[in-house]
Amino acid sequence: MPYRAPGSPGHSRQQFLSGKPISYYRPTGSADIRRLIDDGFQAFNAGRLSEACQIFAGKMLAPENDTTIGLTIAGAMTPAGLGGCVIEMLDRGLVDFIISTGANLYHDLHYALNFTLRRGSPFVDDRELYEDGVIRIYDVLFPATVLLETDAYIREFLVRSKLNDATSTSELHYRLGLDLLERFPGCDEHSVVARAAKDGVPIYTSSPGDSSIGMNIAYHELMNDSRFMIDPNKDVNEVCAIVLAGKQNGCVILGGGSPKNFYLQAQPTLWEVYGIMKGGNDYFIQITTDQVVWGGLSGATPSEAVSWGKVNPGVLPDTVVAYCDSTVAFPLFCEYAVGSPNGRRQRKELVHKREQLVAALRREAKMADEKRKAEV
Amino acid sequence: MPYRAPGSPGHSRQQFLSGKPISYYRPTGSADIRRLIDDGFQAFNAGRLSEACQIFAGKMLAPENDTTIGLTIAGAMTPAGLGGCVIEMLDRGLVDFIISTGANLYHDLHYALNFTLRRGSPFVDDRELYEDGVIRIYDVLFPATVLLETDAYIREFLVRSKLNDATSTSELHYRLGLDLLERFPGCDEHSVVARAAKDGVPIYTSSPGDSSIGMNIAYHELMNDSRFMIDPNKDVNEVCAIVLAGKQNGCVILGGGSPKNFYLQAQPTLWEVYGIMKGGNDYFIQITTDQVVWGGLSGATPSEAVSWGKVNPGVLPDTVVAYCDSTVAFPLFCEYAVGSPNGRRQRKELVHKREQLVAALRREAKMADEKRKAEV
Amino acid sequence: MPYRAPGSPGHSRQQFLSGKPISYYRPTGSADIRRLIDDGFQAFNAGRLSEACQIFAGKMLAPENDTTIGLTIAGAMTPAGLGGCVIEMLDRGLVDFIISTGANLYHDLHYALNFTLRRGSPFVDDRELYEDGVIRIYDVLFPATVLLETDAYIREFLVRSKLNDATSTSELHYRLGLDLLERFPGCDEHSVVARAAKDGVPIYTSSPGDSSIGMNIAYHELMNDSRFMIDPNKDVNEVCAIVLAGKQNGCVILGGGSPKNFYLQAQPTLWEVYGIMKGGNDYFIQITTDQVVWGGLSGATPSEAVSWGKVNPGVLPDTVVAYCDSTVAFPLFCEYAVGSPNGRRQRKELVHKREQLVAALRREAKMADEKRKAEV
Amino acid sequence: MPYRAPGSPGHSRQQFLSGKPISYYRPTGSADIRRLIDDGFQAFNAGRLSEACQIFAGKMLAPENDTTIGLTIAGAMTPAGLGGCVIEMLDRGLVDFIISTGANLYHDLHYALNFTLRRGSPFVDDRELYEDGVIRIYDVLFPATVLLETDAYIREFLVRSKLNDATSTSELHYRLGLDLLERFPGCDEHSVVARAAKDGVPIYTSSPGDSSIGMNIAYHELMNDSRFMIDPNKDVNEVCAIVLAGKQNGCVILGGGSPKNFYLQAQPTLWEVYGIMKGGNDYFIQITTDQVVWGGLSGATPSEAVSWGKVNPGVLPDTVVAYCDSTVAFPLFCEYAVGSPNGRRQRKELVHKREQLVAALRREAKMADEKRKAEV
């Protein structure tokens, strides 16, 4: 490891890496947990979480509503071991597409590549960690070599893939997932990216340059003269097209951040830019610790979203924000959903329908455009 | 306005749009405010804000340190009228480049285009706002037509610009700023995008598809068959190159979010991906209300960044996080900086040096690569 | 109801009072929940909550440690239905004494008196609630008459009790509990105050004038010329004496506020005021959403408490703060504890030992005093 | 210092006690700061703080409204040096009575007794502090001997005062302030307790046993057989009487906690317990970082208070919560108030009117009682 990089002097890391390995816990639909959520979670944020579970399992998943459900992920969820919840949800068809920070997808690769992240403490001395070459994500610890080797895998994948054009992030992640499945059979038990590829669930990233995946693609362009790049236009239009095609639309938002906005902006893109009236989301569930009073979008309420046409003004009763760390609330939420009568749906496999959905979006937009011109 | 869009029935908006117009307040370097910060802000977050002011004005701006300073902006700062602070800072050379959410830049255009955003309340009924066609950003209110007309300007600019290739966001914003300057003379008093173009300050967006600017570019591709797109690789490499070239490096982080990470990842990109040792940031100032205990990157401490090689392990005393709404803390911070003996620096005008800096990055990366291969 | 009181015009309340009644959910020690906490709660606040459960069940409750355990309660826990968790804990001997805000005890009386609080929403119009005579605690709703009738019960109890002297709050709450048990047989299934009296668990209030109980005692003095009053000195000394007598000491802190400080100050009272060396708490568990960076005592860390001698400097590994709404985290915590091998302990019944413990405190303090004088 | 007390081994403290002394900054009414608040603080919490300043200076202080103004203080404000703001406010008659945590009053005594608290860091090692006998309040540091000597002063005062009965906290603090004025002439420039005594401003504590003052009174009872105690009934009734006598009523709430509730419960005590209709507060200003969504009283909104009859339902526009650390917001708020045209009022000197106000309360309560009985 080079000088001035974390861990370059090559100290021992044993001191910090003695915690239990973090694994992808899979919810099984516990009846006890469902009872606690129904009967014990009565007020305050427990009440909100209970409402969120009931709206999701009772309404969003109801077969007659055929809701197209987006899951957005911000905050270090895969490092904290929540990838197992995501795998269970997408495998059961309870989530139709995902918008995630790049970091969550990058760190998911560690599990696929069989590296070990460990439980630790947030109170360690980071200068010692630096000396010892140990990387810290709050209380999750692992050797810096995990970064270097995951980076190497990404760069090799890029070369191997022969990708050499502008693509969407959904295509990148799909191709990456297929590569993982081929090279690491069985890794789809331990990798959201791999399982999503297998199950046909598209994964988007709202900030494609903003993660180690993006950093390595940038390397590929600068050093290998590759012409592979992410075209954010494709992502914007694909997500719009998916939302447009939904009979009903709803979301589960973990955290907030740019994935939240990237999901929510699909409806304003439709009316504000394309002139297509869709009417806003029908369901809106957010689990976050951000606060409305700080004014930012992460903490903005479903109500504020109404004024933007992001949320249907008629459905505020079907929107809920539970203020809780996702590491606590999301596993509870998934246990509830998995154990519910609607705990399995036919998967939509949207990865394979992207082209046709975007074509439909273009058609509708052209029609709206012509209608507008005719009206002037 | 089309049916099912906010305001389509065409109600009166007078009820909601009676507040004072929001304008771009410009800090003037008040001695009273400097005295309050030095003598009255002694402990807790007042103490942290005081330290941040002193580190910025006393160390980061000190001529002998020649610090390359990045400002990252998350949260709705321009809607809240903080663009005047940003203009003052970049005009005085106190900030060398900017990484912002797209929303801040999009809403900055309203001021350039002479639309009016108004002071309001966060407690209004959003269903009424929706009926009346009034858009709400927390307590900032304006007619939905402001969105539609700003969108139209962006789409016309895109056509006019003849941009038809993959570019960096810095190039997009620079071209946009030049267009504003040409078409709306004097607007650089009321627009960060325009002033930054005039002053040669590059502006990056970490999530290029995630804002109305990105939505309109996506329209341009889908509807006009344009080949213009943002290439995030260029952004990653330009920011890396700017950081690599800095004698010292430091940042002022407003909020957190993906702009924070996009700035901070430059150092790991250098050591982790390009094999170039730079040693981490020398200064780190963050104003945020996010919290470390939620585990996300927005709230992560400078200390946690040390383990990643983002912050130089030797400089923790020159890092500080002040927990405060930026709308309160940033104007105070700017008053302090502007009034300090180092309140004006030669502008670096990095917009005009991007190509040469990226070339230098490529050279160093190639050398590092060859050295690595030789060592194996 | 008098004019200008909430609800005086006598509107219908049906609109707001249609939610499910809130009841006291009793944890049963679910194995599923224990598995989720052990295996699924791996990092971030889920990790902290898991650690808290393991420290409590594995160490604090271990028979060989014989830990004297204080539970402090701030925030509206009984209105939210968490009284059932508290009852289960004190009945099983898992909590030896309680320090609570007066509000939690006052609202607990509603359940004993068989009034109904209901699930509602935090987004209702409070001016309408006021007109309709409905009281709101965040999202818990009930008629204003519940207050008036509970107040009447308290005043009648005061008259009936013939209390006419300065007493501790533990004595007041014990006498109140006995009165409830006598007049409402079986109410100890639905009342913390009643069950604590039955089980001999003393309950203290750090701010005795600051609740409707205190308000009605003040009435009793002003209007009935009673000489009954709370003597805070007795509370301070009783809590000190309980802590002094503990073989090991530990606490479970819900929220923070003055109950937290009232518990923690016992150790400084011993060394700082009485000159008796005890050495600080051995265990410290807090569930809160307050933050250390705001500087207040509610959010202060176990580490900060070390400098005050509140926490034994050697035991920081046995201290943990989980940042989570208690309505979510405390039921999970109780399920874990109840289901653990140490899920039942012999009750200490400290109510009946207060006099003897305070006598021991006085003895030790006198000895320390004489030793000090001898040393001068 | 005794063994097992902080600092007992007698290490050097120089390492930690090198920061600048904290002093009581006095606001002077800066025109620059007023301009920033009026013109630069336009939205989000800056907007709220601006509104709070305008409501306070423009309405609450307006001579024609003759508002009785209570200030409640939670969080470690005097350790952070904010006592100077409080002194300026009460000296100018801008605050008529105070409800504070005991800790703020206890630590205020250090300044009166000429001890030095110093600026430090929240990131020091508390085990080292403990060894060195240094006490930490977040980032404020001072020797443990400051506690011991302040405690000794309190105990000597108690002996000297010959107080031997049940009194209100306002009487205790008044007597304490007079003692300070007599023994440390001029200390009213550096002590809220002393200045309040001089200016006749009553100071209440909602949790009288919960601070080092309360601890030392408890010692006095246990060790000296004193019969001096705090009677919370007197506090409840005095605050009620003050509120009842107000032509208009308003509050400035710093933080939240039990002082907030103790102030706000005065109105429900009047209607709910005494049957006297007063109608709720006319103005409500809170500066806090607590959040409504956690459900507790600290973060509860003025709106929630309406349903309890604490806030007049007609005045919601004159209520405002600014979410900001008080160490930043309160000095700004005071600068604004002091510099306003209403920056000085005739002091009410309520300390000298307590008896007569309580007599009036009793009279009205008796009348209400008789009327009630007549109606039955």
Q: SSE order of chain A in H/E notation?
A: HHEHEHEHEEHEHHEHEHEHHEHEHH
Question: Hey, which two chains have the biggest interface?
Answer: A-B, 99 and 99 residues
- By DSSP (H or I, 4+ residues per run), the number of helices of chain A equals 15
Strand order of the largest sheet of chain A: 7-2-1-9-10-11
Radius of gyration computed on alpha carbons of chain A = 21 Å
Q: Could you estimate the helical fraction of the residues of chain A in percent?
A: 40-55%
Poorly predicted regions of chain A: none
What multimeric state do the chains show?
homotetramer
Characterization of this structure:
4 copies of one chain form a homotetramer. The first copy, chain A, has 376 residues and is of the alpha/beta class. The first copy, chain A, has helices spanning 31-40, 44-60, 83-91, 102-112, 126-132, 144-161, 169-183, 192-199, 212-224, 232-245, 257-264, 266-273, 302-307, 326-338, 354-375; strands spanning 67-73, 97-100, 118-119, 134-137, 140-143, 166-167, 203-204, 229-230, 248-254, 283-288, 319-323. In chain A, strands 7-2-1-9-10-11 form a 6-stranded parallel sheet, with helices on both faces. Chain A has a 3-stranded antiparallel sheet with strand order 3-5-4. In chain A, strands 6-8 form a two-stranded parallel sheet. In chain A, a hairpin with a 2-residue loop joins strand 4 (134-137) and strand 5 (140-143). In chain A, helix 2 runs parallel beside helix 14 (326-338) and helix 10 (232-245) crosses helix 12 (266-273). The longest helix of chain A is centred in the C-terminal third of the chain and has 22 residues, at 354-375. Chain A is globular and about 70 Å long. Chains in contact: A-B, A-C, A-D, B-C, B-D, C-D. At the A-D interface, loops of A face loops of D.
